[in-house]
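Worked example (supplementary).
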Amino acid sequence: MRAWETNVRRVVPYVPGDQPKGDHLIKLNTNENPYPPAPGVCRALREMEADRFRKYPDPSSASLVRVLAERYDVDEDQVFVGVGSDDVIAMAFLTFFNSDRPILFPDISYSFYRVWADLFRVPYETSALDEAFRIRTEDYERPNGGIIFPNPNAPTGLLLPLEDVEEIIRRNPDVVVIVDEAYIDFAGGMSALELTRKYDNLLVVQTFSKSRSMAGIRIGYAIGNASLIRALNDVKYSFNSYTMNMPSQILGVEAVKDEAYFRETVARIVETREWAKGELRKLGFSFPDSSSNFIFASHEQFPAEKLFEDLRKEQIYVRYFKQPRLDHYLRITIGTREEMEALFAFLKVYPG
Ligand code: PMP
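After joint prediction of all chains, the assembly is encoded as:
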């Protein structure tokens, strides 16, 4: 073996969900929003002048930072933006997780955390969720180099009550605790954002990919104490100054401006989710009580992998994880009412 071959950084990459092509498929596999982005986003996209692209974008994404600071009632120096929350979290790993002690996260959570830990050579330990897929706060009381967990959790959809989130932050004042709130807008006002006023070790990460219908545009952000944000920006500027492109910055601002549309579409998804829970129960499925835009459901009679494949033959895509403890479940994104009706029409006659 030549030296370069031994010196290659080898990682097992994160595997994103399929992005199948076609006009008539029902795509409930990657937790995207079934509604279009806000009308102002669509208008700004139509009116965008390509000549502007000759120039570099604003490296600080100042206009987007400004509207986010206003929206969340924090100072501008408390907001960091990145290319999706994946980029924000990757930067946060690089910035904050540099201890010899292991970082902690739940064994069942966003599978990208392990990949970043491996990539950046951060030692980690996972804590098992309990039988009902709940995070046990006492598992986060041992010595550690940092903590990250999604809330609501993925792929379970379960929300950790805010007092438990606070307990974890309070008991770990010497490390950064990252709460990954990719799905929090579907959880009815349970964000840990307000706790950033009280705890300087808390970083809350959110995204435009789910509740703002902009997964394809790639915008994520973190809110926390100004010194955390400064450290994040120092690392970002040491990596790539121009992470966020100009169209994303412009379209992101438009999305934040339309609060009414945001509220309306989120409410619609929550309403469809609650109705879908009832339908799934009637069909004999069981699932943790979701506070997100997906339901993690299993059925005693239908092996999940077979059902996943049978659904795919019908052009209905859901997500299946071939892993211990998860392989009896399907993660079903909440689509439009019509899409969910098509899913239930299939399930009602299954295995027909
Ligand atoms: N965190 C969690 C828990 C997620 O499920 C996802 C979506 N795959 C992300 C972060 C990343 O989302 P994005 O990069 O699109 O903001």
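Two points are worth noting when inspecting this output. The chain has a mean pLDDT of 97. Residues 84-86, 110, 150, 154, 180, 182, 207, 209, 215, 220 surround 4'-deoxy-4'-aminopyridoxal-5'-phosphate (CB under 6 Å).
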